[in-house]
Amino acid sequence: MARTLHILGAGVIGLSIAWRAAQRGWSVRISDQTLGSTPPPGVSASWVAGGMLAPYSEAWPGHEPLLRLGMGSLGRWPGFAAELAGFAPAGTVLAAEETIVVGATAADLSALAPGFESARAVGLDWRRRARGELREAEPGLAADLRGGWLLPEEPAADNRALLAALTAAARSLGVEFVAESPEQLPRAGTGRVVVAAGAGTPALLPELPVRPVKGEILRLAASPKTVPPPRRTIRALVRGRHVYLVPRRDGVVVGATELEGDERTGVSAQAVAELLSDAIAVLPGLADYDLVEASAGFRPVTPDRCPVLGWVDPAGADRCLVATGHGRDGMLLAPLTAELAVDLLEDAQVGEPEREALRAMDPARFLVR
Ligand SMILES: Cc1cc2nc3c(=O)[nH]c(=O)nc-3n(C[C@H](O)[C@H](O)[C@H](O)COP(=O)(O)OP(=O)(O)OC[C@H]3O[C@@H](n4cnc5c(N)ncnc54)[C@H](O)[C@@H]3O)c2cc1C
Description:
It is a single chain. The chain is of the alpha/beta class. It has 2 domains: 4-53 and 159-209 and 303-366, FAD/NAD(P)-binding domain (3-Layer(bba) Sandwich), CATH 3.50.50; 99-152 and 212-300, D-Amino Acid Oxidase, Chain A, domain 2. It contains 10 helices and 17 strands. It has helices spanning 12-23, 45-48, 64-85, 106-121, 131-137, 159-172, 201-204, 269-282, 330-345, 352-361, and strands at residues 4-8, 27-31, 94-96, 99-103, 129-130, 147-151, 156-157, 176-178, 192-195, 211-221, 233-238, 241-248, 251-255, 259-260, 290-301, 308-312, 320-324. Strands 4, 5, 6, 10, 11, 12, 13, 14 and 15 form a 9-stranded mixed beta sheet that branches. Strand 1 (4-8), helix 1 and strand 2 form a beta-alpha-beta unit. Helix 1 runs parallel beside helix 9 and helix 3 crosses helix 9. The longest helix has 22 residues, at 64-85. The mean pLDDT is 94. The protein binds flavin-adenine dinucleotide. Flavin-adenine dinucleotide binds next to helix 1, helix 2, strand 10, strand 15 and helix 9.
């Protein structure tokens, strides 16, 4: 078999697969019309993402398979980040090492509790912290927050540093980048094909129930006159509304809305107003930061919120591998997805944890045969 691979989609998933496949000796071409444009136009979720690597603080009753996938991928993140560090513009793709989760009111704290019960079910047991303890860790936190949790296990990535590092690492191994997005799957006999087109996947594989869920997100810049960015990711529930602050070297990413059925690529004034007001309620010093970007992306979401990774047989085309549907967790799940995608391409023997992950992501669960 010619080890030639054509990947459609250069988001975090397509790039991670390209890099890992090239490391295993595949000759890889990756196509995406947004290549070479900064910012990339359209729906790219990877470009706008916050970068939290957050299986536990994203946990929720009923989503246990996703939690297990997230834990499996988080375990691969230290090696993934270390291998990419030399290709990252600032020498790392990581943005924070820990997370704090806070509630603004007693009701907010209670509303967050079920997520922590899910994490407890997989063996993690965080103690609730008083606001004084949390403010010792992050002195910029507002004095009137009710309290929360410190999660030393949850780091964050800088999504744009990660995309730059993956691109450079793939290029160094000879991966070919093509600035076009084919409207159809490549014709038969041209080698293996991987569809990693995010929310654009259904245009190529209409049988897959992947829907776009819009997310609006802001970027704020610090200056020498402002308080420095927090050292940890801070997630909060503020009077029933979720907000998160993910540090960057020079500021903070503030996210994010989650809107079904909104196909407009713009960011609404209401989203900006609510995200800013909630962010400042959590970290008052942000009021002096500059608002430098408001952007939107489309998360590729499946009905059960687990990704799809596996072989599909589209009508009229060669069998191809699909890797999409990572929803809110594509940054987190990239290392696991890339490793398993290459295992599938090579028909490799894998262990029971990997087989379980592949079962959870099998596209066959959505395909009528
Ligand atoms: C606001 C927001 C915040 C987020 N925060 C986080 C977070 O904190 N942590 C986390 O883990 N995840 C987060 N996510 C989710 C994460 O960004 C996505 O799960 C992930 O980026 C999906 O990656 P992808 O490569 O599948 O898709 P994308 O990044 O969307 O990339 C798909 C690419 O395919 C291209 N394409 C489309 N059609 C074709 C075609 N026919 N041929 C070739 N190319 C094509 C597109 O141009 C695009 O560049 C967030 C998402 C959003 C929107």
